[in-house]
Design a protein that fits this description.
Layout: E1 2-8, H1 15-23, E2 32-39, H2 47-52, E3 57-60, H3 66-79, E4 84-87, H4 93-102, E5 107-112, H5 123-139, E6 142-145, H6 148-151, E7 166-168, H7 184-190, E8 198-203, H8 212-222, E9 229-234, H9 240-249, E10 256-260, H10 265-271, E11 274-277, H11 286-293, E12 298-300
Parallel strand pairs: 1-2, 1-4, 2-3, 4-5, 5-6, 6-7, 8-9, 8-11, 9-10, 11-12
Length: 315
């Protein structure tokens, strides 16, 4: 049996976390043991689901607490023999890969899920980004990127010349939930919306990268044009309270619905009319794939990868 340790910032709802949590029950547990290491001691939405599937969840201090993080990380690696680590944590993956090399973990995978490039950020952040990139390129034995955009910031410039070490690994979703046709009228009633509502939906974390400000700007421009147009925001995050307060301040509370985290996103999407996704940058947006699977017209930013396969809606 191969033991693999996935390193993630947390196990709360997000594209990477959901993909891992949904995929774990499908692996052959006679061949693989997947465990998870998270940063910090906060609540973890998917923890119970993962542990029920046989995974162990380790908690480690945030890498900002460098000394305690290094000690804790090495202690975990020495306590349990892992054949591979798979680091999903952007810049901090470099440190994890270096520590795994020190602990003699033979396979060290860097998994790039984002197209964020901080090489032109402020001097401190840019130096940290450059050092992280150096660590990743030095200590990763494999590099998997979910798209060409996600490969660009942290892979070597000549990564295409070394396909056995650096490669693209697009992710996918389970289409079976979209085979069940949702009751639109029932869904609209649940959301306290009229049956003639035209619903524009966004699914994603309330974070700067998801660009909720743009959605509010659209809503402001449309205010008063059609009273049957509504905006549905699905998700949670550090900016949720701020965004909801701004909705109220702008006098748009009647046109917005905010659901928080939902486990029935495929059903909600089928209730809606248009999917909007104005992200500042993306690696491979799972929410976009789900919207396509639901058959929704999608209005997305040019920051989203253009090479993504289009999912066919269920027949």
């Amino acid at each position: 049996m191969l033991r693999v340790l996935h390193i993630v910032g947390g196990l709360n709802v997000g594209g990477v976390e959901t993909w891992l949590a949904e995929g774990l029950p499908t692996i052959d547990r006679n061949l693989y043991q997947f465990d998870f290491l998270v940063h910090g001691d906060g609540a973890q939405f998917y923890r119970d689901k993962l542990e029920a599937s046989g995974a162990r969840v380790w908690q480690c201090p945030n890498p900002r607490n460098l000394t305690t993080y290094v000690r804790s990380f090495l202690r975990i690696l020495r306590a349990t023999h892992y054949d591979a680590i798979d680091a999903h944590t952007y810049c901090s993956s470099g440190l994890a890969l270096a520590l795994a090399a020190r602990a003699q973990v033979p396979v060290r995978i860097f998994h790039s899920h984002t197209a964020q490039d901080e090489s032109g950020a402020g001097i401190v952040r840019a130096v940290y980004f450059a050092f992280s990139r150096w660590l990743i390129q030095r200590y990763a034995t494999r590099g998997a990127a979910v798209s060409q955009e996600a490969a660009r910031p942290l892979f070597p410039k000549d990564w295409r010349d070394h396909p056995t070490r650096w490669f693209l690994a697009p992710v996918g979703i389970d289409l079976s939930p979209f085979e069940v046709v949702a009751d639109r009228d029932a869904g609209l009633r649940e959301l306290n919306l009229p049956t003639n509502a035209k619903v524009i939906v966004h699914v994603g974390r309330f974070a700067v990268v998801k660009n909720h400000d743009f959605i509010l700007a659209i809503a402001g421009e449309m205010a008063g044009l059609d009273p049957n147009v509504f905006f549905l925001l699905v998700g949670d995050g550090e900016l949720r309270t701020e965004i909801e307060q701004r909705v109220n301040t702008l006098g748009l509370s009647q046109q917005f619905r905010s659901t928080g985290v939902r486990c029935d996103v495929p059903r909600l999407l089928q209730v809606c009319d248009v999917f909007v996704f104005p992200s500042i940058y993306e690696g491979f947006p799972m929410a976009y794939i789900e919207a396509q699977a639901a058959g929704l017209p999608c209005v997305i930013s040019t920051a989203s990868p253009m090479q993504m396969a289009i999912a066919s809606p269920p027949a």
